[in-house]
Design a protein that fits this description.
- Strand 16 and strand 17 form a beta hairpin.
- This protein is flat.
- By secondary structure, it is α+β, with helices and mostly antiparallel strands.
- Helix 3 packs antiparallel against helix 4.
- The protein is built from 21 helices and 23 strands.
Length: about 700
Amino acid sequence: MDIDLSQFSQVFFEESIEGLAIMESELLKLDVAAPDPETINTIFRAAHSIKGGSATFGFMQVANYTHLLETLLDEIRDGRRQMQPDHVDMLLLSVDLLRGMFEALMSQAEFNDPKLSELELRLNHTLSNQPSQTQSVSSPQALSGSDSKALCWQIDFKAGADIMRCGNDPMLMFAELASKGTLTAELLPVSLPSWDDFDPEACYLHWRLRLITDEPLEKLKEVFEWVEDECEISYQQMEAAPSADAPTEMLSPSPQAEIGAPAATPEVIALAPEVQPPSTDKAASSQKQNAVAAKSGESSSIRVSTEKIDMLINMVGELVITQAMLGQIGQQDEINQESLLLLQQGLEQLASHTRDLQESVMQIRMLPISFAFNRFPRLVRDIGQQLGKKVELILKGEDTELDKTVLEKIVDPMVHLVRNSLDHGLESPELRLAQGKSETGTIMLNAYHQGGCIIIEIVDDGAGLNTRKILEKARQKGIVGPDEELSEEAIHQLIFKPGFSTADAVSDLSGRGVGMDVVKRNIHELNGSIELKSEAGKGSRFTIRLPLTLAILDGQLIRIGKHIYVVPLVSIYESLQVPTNRINRLSDGHELIRLRDEYLPVIKMYREFNHDADAREIKDGLVMVVDHNNEKTGLLVDELLAQQQVVIKSLEENYTRIPGISGATILGDGTVALIIDVAGLVKLAGIGSSNEHAA
């Protein structure tokens, strides 16, 4: 019977990767000296589920390897083996390897990491150095009648009719039982239905299994926990365990049962512990199909709570009611004053329901930032060990939600910032003690909402930035002139320059001058910004400000001549009319305005976009002050229009990339308005090219 498991494979991959995340999280918080039994059980259950699912789908490389992990964890949770730091290291490395295996399966690639065989050897070596009672499980000869601990269990297993349809193979379960001792399987007589009622995809088989083992009954029941609700299973302990050396009779296969009649002589099969499901061309083909299905479904998915789905359904219901009301008005022969009033009320309701529906749809894409934060405990642990530093990681605001696309794209910049804090920020334990600090450094990740943005902070209590060394390196590289003086904040911003590094030597973590500039560029591509504050001897704080979503933008509509543009509200500082006495012209043609105690450059947008504008001079128009990397710049516009949310469309995908423009949107009247990229516009206008230290 052919069973197409490909429809389930993508769900299996998602659940397995979640299981690996659970294993990693629990391992990182495990106290090796006094392990919490529930924590060990949680790790074991995750490994057990991955092993069982992998075997079901035919991913035997994963199943066989996870079986080693399950055996080790089983011995630890039963108290037969004491947890050691080396066990945690092996299990964490195994999580990495399993992730690699799943990635290879999803991309239809071979997994050939040499670390796999090395770790398998370590695990097998660890498992071989075990108490004799554990060794007896893997040695059938030890389970003879002379071993008083060995018991004989009789298990009657009547498969459910739909067991194969659900992707469960009894042979895989029997192979698992065989690994626990000596197993014989007897196929009992069954009554088959009549020809008219016979279902060729149903399973009508009934086995009687006899297992000689010293494993407790709970371990045997775990083999069938996937199918216990759909099958009939009974366990009976026999009075004495027969000798394992006694020959097991292999009867000839029973005659083919007639439809509607009981089967004849039962078939007895002896299964050795090393029995594996037969490897056939069909099995290999099935595994490849499963991987293909996973690859085709590789576009990421989101698990949505039923509460959010219910909210969407309610909103759609409200829209249907409003549409019905407006439809009745449209069917009237005459439109009177009362009809106009109802029409106006209906349109207001339609606008309100549309906004609510929009917010509900956006909520579906919102995920807690814990999905990003969860990878950092492992990162901090590994790098801290590599550098010989003691580090405590503090996570705050893990429930803060942001758009899934933003979440995925912000992870890499955050990883680099945390690595930077570990390598450059935190001192060694000896140095911290000498400075009167705790030998354990602290890194804090914090997230919270502010206005229409999400703020992410990476804070450490390390040495802070060495401004003297940064300025020295910048002068050596020609980034700063030999006699040029910079403020402390401007010096701090130098670390974001391409190719800049203060590391004295290149290492696996730093020294190549690649990273901080990429961090800044990636954040800007998300329409975000990054700020840095540092104090010598006390630490540093990186603050990332991001929009909650990349799909919808809160914008200010502006007019330049006959053209409408959208400026992101998050970039706008203020708008004002500037009198002539506050305008200064530089020798290079650029103009500055004096705003309180600052002099700000002004970009005449009609020049950059080649428009015929109403206001060609600053005094005749409005100046919109926008913020770019903590630097203010003025934009000369003709008129400020409405503020509204706009749906962002990619200009690059639908047309071509245009400097100074980040996208486009369609306004209510059907016209297209371009969305200003403030950073790109400043660069296009050549503003700050000579004072790029702050950028």
